[in-house]
Amino acid sequence: MQGSSTTTTSRQPTHRPGLNYTDRFTVQLPGTLQGSRCDTDASTLPDQTALPTKNAGLGVLIINTQVHPSQNIYIKASMTDSTSVLMAEAAAMALGAAVTDRLQLHHTNFLSDSQELVSFFNANDHSNPPDWRIKYLTQHFIDYTQYRSTSTFKITRSQNQTADSLARQALLDMRSLPPNVSSVCSNTNHVNRCPVQDALQSVTVDSVTVLTARCC
């Protein structure tokens, strides 16, 4: 993790032949993107509730194409002091960025169904996030990605079903299971050592706790 100084690096995704864009940062065919992928989502109560803070489940799907065959990583995490849906979404993105940084992934495409966050991360000015309370999370994301040639895209909710399912399961797990980290690796290339398990030991995002991780 770098310092808390604000960066103004702009993420300009490259328009590649065969991709169907509805605008500069929305992609209709995420499966055709080149490079690794990190899909994120969050599940929490609507913002209309009177609670000052609320639990949130976070879901992260990482498809690592830097190895052959490609590696899939499924992560469920919790957040106990979210103040909004946007904060939970930002926390999921920050967690995904932290894990991909620890795995030393480059040319990663971050995919989210949050239009506000995608627009913010693709802007030139990162000093004023959509909600000042999420600034520490947006700075986490920026610090973990600014030197690794990443792009951030908007996808539809229907294209984000895996991360959404992980987030919903994480929210349920917070209510029913003790906060013990469970990590499972079924990747045949990781017989002696799993890099995901090693990476998670050094991943730190304020207010976020990893519940389970599966590598396959």
For this entry, give a set of tags.
two-stranded antiparallel sheet; 9 strands; alpha/beta; Nucleotidyltransferase, domain 5; 7-stranded mixed beta sheet; 216 residues
Architecture per CATH nomenclature, i.e. the level-2 architecture: 2-Layer Sandwich
Distance between the termini: 27 Å
Number of helices: 5
Report on the biggest sheet.
Answer: 7 strands, mixed
Computed over alpha carbons, the radius of gyration is: 16 Å
Poorly predicted parts: 1-22
Protein structure class? alpha/beta
**Roughly what fraction of the amino acids lie in strands?**
25-35%
**Number of beta-strand segments:** 9
Q: Strand-and-helix sequence, N→C?
A: EEEEEHEHHEHEHE
Sequence of strands across the biggest β-sheet: 7-6-3-4-5-9-8
Q: Please, could you describe this protein's structure?
A:
This protein has a seven-stranded mixed sheet with strand order 7-6-3-4-5-9-8. It has a two-stranded antiparallel ribbon with strand order 1-2. The longest helix is centred in the middle third of the chain and has 18 residues, at 85-102. Helix 1 (85-102) runs parallel beside helix 3 (135-145). Mean pLDDT is 86; it is low at 1-22. 44% of the residues are buried. The protein contains five helices and nine strands, in the order E-E-E-E-E-H-E-H-H-E-H-E-H-E. The protein is globular, with a radius of gyration of 16 Å. The chain has helices at residues 85-102, 115-121, 135-145, 161-176, 195-201; strands spanning 21-23, 26-27, 36-44, 54-64, 71-82, 108-112, 151-154, 182-185, 208-215. A hairpin with a 6-residue loop joins strand 4 (54-64) and strand 5 (71-82). Helices cover 27% and strands 27% of the residues. It has a single domain (21-215), classed as Ribonuclease H-like superfamily/Ribonuclease H (Nucleotidyltransferase, domain 5), CATH 3.30.420.10. It is α/β, with parallel strands linked by helices and 216 residues long.
